Amino acid sequence: MSGLRLDELTKRYGEITAVDRLTLEIGEGQLLALVGPSGCGKTTVLRMVAGLIEPDGGRVNLGGADITDTPVHKRNLGLVFQSYALFPHMSVNDNVAFGLQRRGVRGATLDAQVSRALAMVRLDGLGLRKPRELSGGQQQRVALARAIAISPQVLLLDEPLSNLDATLREEMRAEIRRLQQELRITALFVTHDQAEALTMADRIAVLNGGRLEQIGSPEDVYRRPANAFVASFVGRANFITETLAVRPEDLSVVAAAPDDAQSRPVRVLVAAFAGAAIHYTLALDDGRELRAHVPPDGRVFRPGEAAHVAWAKEDAVELPSSGARGS
């Protein structure tokens, strides 16, 4: 059993509450993405789970055991950081072996476990290189291999892909998810990138100002946001009114108001070709702007043209301004 549960976890810095009574659970073998804007408390949560920061309140439970007061080196956790945190003077093999050696693994068993971890991240044959001889993507794979080599109960990942370019980020998303599912390891993934959360996670928890706004499956959080903050932060939301939200891909741009859909008159500000869609920026009569992503298989409206933006009633969500929900 290796599920992780946080009960009323709290951290204060003077008068600032960085994490406010956070309660959530990650089921065994699940990957939970913790998302939110900079300063919302997500990295503080991860560091309290890791034992690097002491909470001011609440408990951390791992696999049925309370580890709140357990020293960091006695928690069976694998950590992958944004900066990779590799030892520059050590070879790849020695970097991966480090955690195993601290656990008393030696000799042929150590060599076998290092080789297995490197094979899992597809770095066979690079064990004798130094980190400086590797690309950024390869360095991140070494950090991942070091974390999984110790067979941790939970894998903690703190913005691990933020230093990679777009192509490598996409590749490593798939790699991390593949490994997590293959090993059936429980994982907490901290990111500010909503695309990473939506494509990688079993469940997403959205933080704002240290408090939980919503937790649920990626589809629930995206399609049924709990409030305006979640709708705006996870993906892009158009607010037709202050509480009525529609996603850009659920809007169509048409010449005349249809009889079978909700619609508003708009003026086209921008029409940008983006491959699979035309990305429109549109102005309502009151000056508010909307975004619409429309397949490029119909009429293309030009800047300055009058049109109507339309949506199906079932694609619009009425939202409160705040308040958490989810499970």
What does this structure look like?
The protein is of the alpha/beta class. The chain contains 8 helices and 19 strands. The protein folds into 2 domains: 220 residues, Rossmann fold (3-Layer(aba) Sandwich), CATH 3.40.50.300; 83 residues, OB fold (Dihydrolipoamide Acetyltransferase, E2P) (Beta Barrel). Helix content is 26%, strand content 32%. α2 crosses α3, α2 packs parallel to α4 and α4 runs parallel beside α5. The longest helix is centred in the middle third of the chain and has 18 residues. The C terminus is likely disordered.
| Unreliable spans | 323-327
What is the count of DSSP helices, taking H or I runs of 4+ residues? Answer: 8
What percent of the residues sit in helical stretches (DSSP H or I)?
25-40%
Task: Write the element-wise H/E pattern from the N-terminal end onward.
Answer: EEEHEEEHHHEHEHEEHHEEEEEEEEE
Task: Name the structural class.
Answer: alpha/beta
* Assembly of the depicted chains: single chain
Q: Let me know the largest β-sheet.
A: 7 strands, mixed
CATH H-level superfamily of the largest domain: P-loop containing nucleotide triphosphate hydrolases
* Widest beta sheet: strand line-up: 6-7-8-3-9-10-19
Question: Average pLDDT value?
Answer: 93
Distance between the termini: 20 Å
The appropriate CATH architecture of the largest domain is: 3-Layer(aba) Sandwich
- Rg to the nearest angstrom? 23 Å
Number of domains: 2
CATH names the topology of the largest domain as Rossmann fold
Shape: globular
